[in-house]
Amino acid sequence: MTDFASLLQPDRGGPARAIHLVDKDSFAGWSKRQSSARRALLDAARFEGKNGFQYLILPGVQGADWEVVSAVAKISELSPWCLAKLAESLPEGTYRLAEGEAGPAMLGWLLGQHRFTAYKSKNDDERGPRVLLTREAAEIDRTIRLAEATAYVRNLVDTPAADLGPADLEAAARDVAKQFGAKLEVISGDALSQGYPMIAAVGQGATRERAPRLIEFTWGKEGAPRVAIIGKGVCFDSGGLDIKPASGMRLMKKDMGGAAHALALAKLVMAERLPVRLHLLVPAVENSVSAAAIRPGDVIGSRKGLKVEIDNTDAEGRLILGDALARAGEQQPELIFDFATLTGAARVALGPDLPAMFTNNDELANDLQSASREIADPIWQMPLWDGYDEMLKSEVADLANAADSPMAGAVTAALFLRRFVPEGIAWAHFDTFAWRPAAKPGRPKGGEAMGLRTAFALLRRRYGA
């Protein structure tokens, strides 16, 4: 894990190279105040203060050998990513903003220096750390925790499935529970088959070494408000007997991205010591092809008691989440979040950057969208449209696990999940890609945390001091 704590330090007036931030409105005035040598360099580089992660090295003043000017979209509203390109590109050293404070951009400064290098024989970036000094000392620890949580998601999702099966996901959860003193329990074998039949059914085609299990832990005082966080932990998804094509299977190491989000969010809640009774649930399985795998047309039970006909073995994530939601609901929490790399339909509708968010509670929807805008971690609300419930109708069971129509796939998946959420409990479902198909500053290609900071901001707003 990147040592983020060394990259963001309190500004006590020590030596540091200055970073000047400009936007299209302020550039002309700033440029006029510069020396003729600096203006000549700006003209030669055609630097006009336009956004697009443009930056330029300038001769220093007052003894400094050089300084930096960088264009941002809007100085008064810095984004989390406006310093990320600098953190990726500048030489090793110590820096500070010449005017103002970095605020949310501190996150991008940290994540711009994070890389997943576990499987590289040589680190491509041989430079040392780029340290940012800030007078916002009160925000340093929280920013570091957010960077660590984001990197945690990325690292888990980027890990190949051969090294991250259900047992390895359990080990990761054990490490988190041990770090914060949470009480962990793992249900597997006969207890899983009897108590969580949908989780057991999805994982029954896997080898013994990659057997299914439900991982859960609790943390916090008994009398505190109960919050449940659930993450889909399909460590690899072949599609089962409804097997995916090679192109669809290539990224399926990321199908445990929901579990990575849930563990990271739990870490943030516990590190912040929010006054809640936290209940984390991760159903961990591998959806494999074998003679023991569930078949299209099978009917399986569920923890809630509903019988489910298997229309498509590649619609497995909603099955394991259904049992986990039923378990969470038994504890009568006041809030449930679930994260899942659930449907391709959500990506068709919203693309890779926007997690689809479904909720049964208007107040929760408004609060999540407000938090999303405030911290620039986008989500997009999608409808729980009751009229599509009939698409999940089964002739032989209580419901089918997939719709009888190719349309509204993300909606019908969320409607399936809603069947397992008790009435009166506020619930939000995040259908996230957990992957970035193309690199952006501070956001390399690969595993990505999407909606994580929004969910945490909502919890801090509701339960924080």
Salient structural properties:
465 residues; alpha/beta; Leucine Aminopeptidase, subunit E, domain 1; Aminopeptidase; six-stranded mixed β-sheet; 33% helix; 20% strand; elongated
Can you tell me about this structure?
The chain contains 15 helices and 20 strands. The protein is of the alpha/beta class and 465 residues long. The chain folds into 2 domains: 4-129, Leucine Aminopeptidase, subunit E, domain 1 (3-Layer(aba) Sandwich), CATH 3.40.220; 145-463, Aminopeptidase. The longest helix is centred in the first third of the chain and has 19 residues, at 140-158. The chain is elongated and about 80 Å long. The model has no long low-confidence stretch (mean pLDDT 96). Keywords: Aminopeptidase, Hydrolase, Manganese, Protease. This is Leucyl aminopeptidase family protein.
